[in-house]
Design goal:
By secondary structure, the chain is mainly beta. It has one domain (about 5-255): Protocatechuate 3,4-Dioxygenase, subunit A (Sandwich). The protein is built from two helices and 14 strands, in the order αβββββββββββαβββ.
Length: about 260
Amino acid sequence: MQAPMDNDDEPVGRVLTRRDAILLLGGLGAGGLLWLAGCSGSDTTGTSDTGDGGSLDCAVKPALTEGPYYVDENLTRSDIRADSSTGTLQEGALLALTFNVSRIASSACTPLAGAIVDVWHCNALGVYSDTEDPGFNTVGQDWLRGNQLTDAGGSAVFTTIFPGWYSGRATHIHFKIRSAASASSTYEFTSQLFFDESFLSSLYTQQAPYTTKGDSGRLSNASDGIYNQGGSELLLTPTANGSGYAAALSIGLDVSA
C-alpha cells in the first residue's frame, strides 16, 4: 500500500553533537525543552562531559514526524499484538521493545517515572490498524497500538512484532513520549525507530509471514528521507531473546518548566 506521504515526509528536529547538547543544556531558559538520549546516569557530581573530565554522556536523538497514522486509542497495555475487540493476534517475529526514559536535570540523568510512552506501527504486511487507506480499511481495529506509563526506573517494555514494510518508507516504528495529565509540567516528544538492514533482509526472506512480500522493493534506510534526518541515532540492532528478539532505546528528556 502507499499512503499520501505529505505528513510523513516533513522531518522535525536536527542532530546535534554531544558538545552542542551540553551547551544547550546549560543555556536553556525556564521554558526550554531539550530531547537527549544515551544517558549513562553515572554523573552524580553535576558535571557534564565537555572534554574536561565530566561523566555525563548524552547524545541527541532527533524528533521525527508523527506521520499520518497516529491514533490516540487511549489503550494502556504492554502487549500490543492483539485487537482489543476480537483478541486476534498479529503474526510475526516477537519483539520485546524497551524504552528507558530519563529526566535531564542539573547535568545528570535520573529515571523519569510516570511518562506515557505510545507505540504504533504496521503489521508484517505493511498495514496499519484503525486506518482507511487506498489499499485497505482497518477502521475500528487497534492491533499494534498501545501505551503505558514508565515505571519507577523509567522503563516501559512492550511486547510486539517486527513491522513489515510498505512502499515509500524504510521499516520503522513510531513512538511518542508525553506527560501524564497529572504531571507538573507538560511535554511531548515524537520520533521513529529504525532497524539494522542485514537483520531485516534476513527476517523478510526467511520467516513467514514476511516472506509473503519478501525483501525486494523495500526502501533502505539510506534511501529514506526521514531516516536521513537523523535516523542513524535511532537505529536498533535486535538481539536474540528466547523465541524472539529484544531491542532497547535509552532517551533523556529535559522537561523543566
